Amino acid sequence: MSRLAGNGGWWAGLAAPIEALGFRLGGGFHPEANDPDTAGLAPPAGTVVVIGHAGPWLWQRFSAERGTFPGPDPLDRWTRTVLSPIAVGCGATLVLPNDGPPYQPFQRWAMRAEAVHPSPLGLLIHPRYGLWHALRAALVFPDRRELPPRAEAPPPCATCVAKPCLAACPVGAFDGSRYDVAACAAHVRSDAGTACRQHGCRARHACPVGPDWAWSDEQQAFHMAAFLDGQG
Fold it and tell me: What are the residues facing 95 on neighbouring strands?
């Protein structure tokens, strides 16, 4: 049974090959005329569909093929390789978060596409997956296509009084309004940051939403290494 809910027709046909690769369709939206969120796209967008992942499926598929993508940004290059044929086949343009300039506002796209909300860590929180999901790409269609109904859900953080995520970081990199990237990177690189490098962000782990979807240590170590590489 599919892990994605759709409205049949073209959406179901799009979901099947994307799911088979370990991704999930995060919903879509129709840009308005002169929409500032899609102003950098050419040709103009009629429909934007956001692609992400949650759970172990994408990592299982990518890690099995990772050896064929040596060098920097292997996950982005793998994503482009496996999704490009799908984009071509359905008449869409494939866009990744790191494509640019101009860089696209992927978080705003995601919030327009499905019920995800900003968290105190700056990551978008999903009502089911918590902080254990990620944006990987988007398909931009020139025409306006019917989309499945958006499933609404309230922001989980609005009713989280304790906010354990803010107290979990050993160097206090999060205060609910800003993220001290330099302090975080310095700690993760240090001997004291071994647990963060190997098991992932403690603040992310402290979130009470979606703990069953937490990524494996191998996946989190991969993303931590990529984070450090990006900090020079």
Answer: 138
| Region label for 205, one of left (φ > 0), alpha (ψ between -120 and 50) or beta (otherwise) | alpha
pLDDT < 70: residue spans in the chain: 1-8
Q: Which residues are CB-neighbours of 151 under 8 A, at least 6 positions away? A: 5, 114, 115
| Cα radius of gyration (the chain) | 18
Q: How far is CA 109 from the centre of its chain?
A: 11
Domain boundaries, the chain: 9-141, 156-230
- Sheet (strand 24-29) strand order: 24-29, 47-54, 133-141, 93-95
- Which pLDDT value is given to residue 183? 97
- CB contact at 8 A, 166 and 204: no
Q: What is the pTM of this model?
A: 0.92
Written as one letter, the residue type at 78 is W
